[in-house]
Amino acid sequence: MSKSGPPIYFQQVIQIFNFLDLLFPQRCIFCGKIMPPGGKICAGCKTDAYLIGPDICPKCGRDAGKCSCAEDAGALCFDSCIAPFYYTGSAKSAILRFKFQGLPQNGPFLAKFIYDRIEEKYSGLNFDFISFVPSHPEKKKARGYNQSEILAINAAKYLCLPLEGEVLVKTANKTPQHELTRAERFKNIAGTFSAPKPRTVSGKKILLIDDILTTGSTLGECAKTLKAAGAEEVRAAVFAATNII
Ligand SMILES: [Zn+2]
Ligand SMILES: [Zn+2]
């Protein structure tokens, strides 16, 4: 064995990893730019992500005084929602890559930001379990995963809370919400979900995870469905909220 360097076995492993780095370089989770080994977010994305707060609207989680959620109070049946980022800049590209470029492996990292916001803004609250906005089975099959489910699985791990996966079911595969106007979204989503496990949700405080808050119509409908099944409280946490509603 040579005394001048690591044993031949380690040299081989290091070479393999160097080779793998060339084949599969580490990329910025947010924008996809190639990063040095160990890097997760590039400098540009760190400055380009628009962090919400510190003072937030107690209902929708956007910057305090800069939202119009009171106009939709009747439809927003969740008790509150929080989000670390606005859906713009690098936080938007992070979601688009995670959702549409077949990168479910980015989920644990994105969920960490949701977890940090939950720790910050929901610190005095207790939840019985975590769940997520379901996607229609056909859509999940086509994409291969439900991005909200992946975020919820990881948020539940960080929070050491149980995950209940089937308390909400999407029964109708309607026009995608992003193709509709604000008024149409509330109408389109009505009656889309069912709560097949009323005994699991009855009297419970639920933390619901989704990827994006836009009008709040989807989370509002989910909360309405869970509350009709007996849930006591439904709060939400998402990765990003649109800054214009
Ligand atoms: Zn980046
Ligand atoms: Zn608000």
Write the layout of secondary structure elements.
Blueprint: H1 8-23, H2 43-48, E1 80-82, E2 85-86, H3 89-100, H4 107-121, E3 129-132, H5 137-143, H6 147-159, E4 169-170, H7 182-189, E5 193-194, H8 198-201, E6 205-213, H9 217-228, E7 233-241
This protein binds zinc ion (ZN) (2 copies).
One zinc ion binds at residues 57, 59-60, 62, 67, 69.
Give an account of the 3D structure:
With 245 residues, this protein is an alpha/beta fold. The protein has two domains: 1-43, no CATH class; 49-241, 3-Layer(aba) Sandwich (Rossmann fold), CATH 3.40.50.2020. Helices cover 38% and strands 13% of the residues. The protein has nine helices and seven strands; from the N terminus they run ααββααβααβαβαβαβ. It has helices spanning 8-23, 43-48, 89-100, 107-121, 137-143, 147-159, 182-189, 198-201, 217-228, and strands spanning 80-82, 85-86, 129-132, 169-170, 193-194, 205-213, 233-241. The strands form two sheets. Strands 1, 2, 3, 6 and 7 form a five-stranded parallel β-sheet that branches. A two-stranded antiparallel ribbon has the order 4-5. The longest helix is centred in the first third of the chain and has 16 residues, at 8-23. The radius of gyration is 20 Å and the shape is globular. One zinc ion (ZN) binds at residues 57, 59-60, 62, 67, 69.
At the first level of CATH, the class of the largest domain is Alpha Beta
> Looking at the structure, what is the overall shape?
globular
- The N- to C-terminal Cα distance equals 67 Å
What binds here, in terms of ligands, is: zinc ion
Rg is 20 Å
Number of helices: 9
